[in-house]
Amino acid sequence: MDALLQGVTNLTWQSFVMYAIGGLLIYLAVKKDYEPMLLLPIGFGAILVNLPLSSVWEFEGADGVLQVFYNAGILTEVFPVLIFVAVGAMIDFSPLLRRPKMLFLGAAAQFGIFATVFVVALVGEAFPELGIDLKVAASIGIIGAADGPTSIFVASKFARQFLGPISVAAYSYMALVPIIQPPVIRLLTTKNERMIRMDNSEKKISKTALILFPIIVTVAAGILAPICVPLVGLLMFGNLIRESGVLERLSKAAQNELANLVTLLLGITIGATMHYEKFLQPITLLIMVLGLAAFVFDTAGGVLFVKFLNLFSKEKMNPMIGAAGISAFPMSARVVQKMAVKDDPQNFILMPAVSANVAGQVASAIAGGMVLALVPWLLAA
Amino acid sequence: MAALSLQLMLYGLAGVFSALAVLYLSIKIVVRVFPGDTKE
Predict the structure, then answer these.
(1) A61-80: per-residue pLDDT in tens?
(2) Which of A32, A111, A365, B27 minimizes the number of CB atoms within 10 Å of its CB?
């Protein structure tokens, strides 16, 4: 009889809170179209793992199916890295090759990562009972990479126990870029600055340059920041498949089958890390709040960097382009273009914004590598 | 920890900018050596 009722007797109020959170994520995915590819599986995974006995995670001492996925795909970094192959195959880097200067905007928009780490460190010092160390702070800060796989990659190395909330924050705020960025941009720019027009000419890029680009990026990143090679290298591998022109089938497979399959497994596995014992903690709230702060700092860093450059350059850039330096592609570029048209219906800055946005993709992967390399070094010093 | 996080910011941003500066120069060279003529 006990065996028949164990489902009911093992229910807790915390389980119901997690069903509500899982339901909310599914609602946001279905009704609001917020990153549905990730939030829906994450939401369902959160419900699955909080069912009585959590048999999808562990049952009678043996790993459950989702723990098998977790061990095979997250702990080994395979899932985020495979997502990078798919993303690389999807991205056309030619806008960046037309305007390589935009790389620096991508770098500036990573400011949010480091500023957030600093804020989290301050919170950790003020509230030692939260148990925040530099690795946890870095894992929360990396939400500012505005790049799900990078956040998962870093968090799975430094703070596995917070993988669930960090991933949810990263993907939720990426979906909320159209809401988060405009007020920050408006606060930091004047109307005249937002009306600055930019060169939209589209010079041709040779196929040779497009093929050499992923190889050069991989070698340069590998020499300068070897630890970021799994991220940058696999991103560029996907891009090389795309640009080579001789691997059409593999390119399409990476963009479709690989991306879909890994996204599906990644989402539900991340959701399965959201057991109430780990998720319903004060630090989850902190992660959600500071994740948002990371996106705000990113936007501010990008915009202010362009304003700084404008002090010295004859050809002024529209400061809003700096906000597109975050990795959330292509939402951020669209947001910037939409804002430009609002102030001046004839102002077309989409192309430079896309260039900055693509630069953000490369910069965020490199920033993730820098964090992975520097944190252990600083802790050991 | 706050001091360490400031160091992380300093070195991290310096590292990202340096890596991207190398990329910038590389792209400039590649695009100049192989000017666009085959793909739009």
Answers:
(1) 899 999 999 999 888 889 98
(2) A32
Q: Please give the Cα distance from B34 to A4 (Å, whole number).
A: 72
Question: What is the predicted pLDDT for the residue at B38?
Answer: 47
Cβ–Cβ under 8 Å, residues A325 and A105: yes
- Structure pTM? 0.87
Task: Grade residue B40 by pLDDT with cuts at 50, 70 and 90.
Answer: very low
Do A27 and A35 touch, CB atoms closer than 8 A?
Answer: no
3-state class (DSSP) for residue A347: coil
Q: Which residues in chain B have their CB less than 8 angstroms from residue A217's CB?
A: 23, 26
Tokens of A144: 């500012």
Note whether B19 contacts A371, CB cutoff 8 Å. no
* Chain A residues close to B37, C-beta within 8 Å: 204, 206
pLDDT digits (tens, 9 = 90+) for A325-345: 998 888 899 999 999 999 999
Q: Using DSSP bridges, classify how beta strands A58-59 and A62-63 pair: parallel, antiparallel or unpaired.
A: antiparallel
User: How many structural domains are present in chain B?
Assistant: 1
Which pair of structure tokens corresponds to residue A60? 């009678």
Segment A275-290 shows an average pLDDT of 89
- B39 has pLDDT over 70: no
Nearest to A228 by CA among B37, B23, B29: B23
Judging by beta carbons within 10 Å of its beta carbon (0-12, 13-18, 19+), is residue A162 exposed, middle or buried?
buried
- Smallest CA-to-CA distance from A211 within A179, A252, A246 is with A246
- What's the gap between Cα A15 and its chain centre? 28
> Does the N-terminal peptide bond of residue A214 adopt cis geometry, omega within 30 degrees of 0?
no
Taking the C-alpha atoms of residue A230 and residue A87, their distance in angstroms, rounded to an integer, is 14
Quote the tokens at residue A122. 């301050």
- DSSP output for A72-107: IIITTSHHHHHHHHHHHHH---HHHHH-TTHHHHHH
Chain B environment of A221 (Cβ under 8 Å): 19, 23
B8/A210 Cβ within 8 A = no
Q: What is the mean pLDDT of residues A233-238?
A: 93
| Whether the Cβ atoms of residue A324 and residue A67 lie closer than 8 Å to each other | no
Nearest-angstrom CA–CA distance, A294 and A141: 7
